[in-house]
From TrEMBL:
<dbReference type="InterPro" id="IPR007709">
    <property type="entry name" value="N-FG_amidohydro"/>
</dbReference>
<protein>
    <submittedName>
        <fullName>N-formylglutamate amidohydrolase</fullName>
    </submittedName>
</protein>
<dbReference type="InterPro" id="IPR011227">
    <property type="entry name" value="UCP029730"/>
</dbReference>
<dbReference type="Pfam" id="PF05013">
    <property type="entry name" value="FGase"/>
</dbReference>
Amino acid sequence: MSDLNETAPLRVLAAHEPHPLETFNESAVSDYFIICEHAGRRIPQSLGTMGLSETDLKRHIAWDIGALSVAKKLSGLLNAPLYTQRYSRLVCDCNRQPDVATFAPEVSEGTEVPANRNLSASARNMRANEIFWPFHNAVSAALDERTMIGRKTRLVTIHSFTPVFLGKSRPWEIGILFNRDETLSPAMLDWFRKNTDLCVGSNQPYAVSDATDYAVPVHGEKRGIPCVEIEIRNDLIASETDAGEWADLVARGLVAAEPQL
């Protein structure tokens, strides 16, 4: 019997498949820098369907539904560069450290992911080396360049969440997420609570931490950059029109928060 490793792919991404990074408005000169780590649901050809149905691959378990639309519109409104990641978070979650279990989840929202079952260390590293690190290294390089030329930076990362999680309804319409940042995140939270009638979550439905997140702790806090993670309930941004209205609201919140930084 032949060793299964002999038939294992040498790479996750085929030569014809795109780089994980897709940028928009890259040369924009705004102080804001936007990232969207869960923008796409693309699955590398080598992984097939990951053992999932097409219906599952269109669900929120595969990507942040609506987040890319909001991020692109926000990029335009603020004249800010936007760095997005094309591949599904089921392949590798680009907002997790590569050594945590949820980087390539065996189960997501109660759904088993066969392609991630008993994933070897080498397979995990391959995904990190071809998707995670190329994306984050590009973000790091862009932020390094901004620092080098003395450009001020406010880091904004855009996500979305489900209205119901494992059978439990979520009342929040938007969440302002943070960890150590005491500048942009609190100012945004204060603005949304004072100027809208939305149900605004403070570190809800998720909380940012070094153990559960990558972008804010690494790209923002370790650099001393004012930063905020914004979560919008995905049923509220299902259309391009709705995404545009939410992007406008977020842009107004960011601009209003600026004098307080």
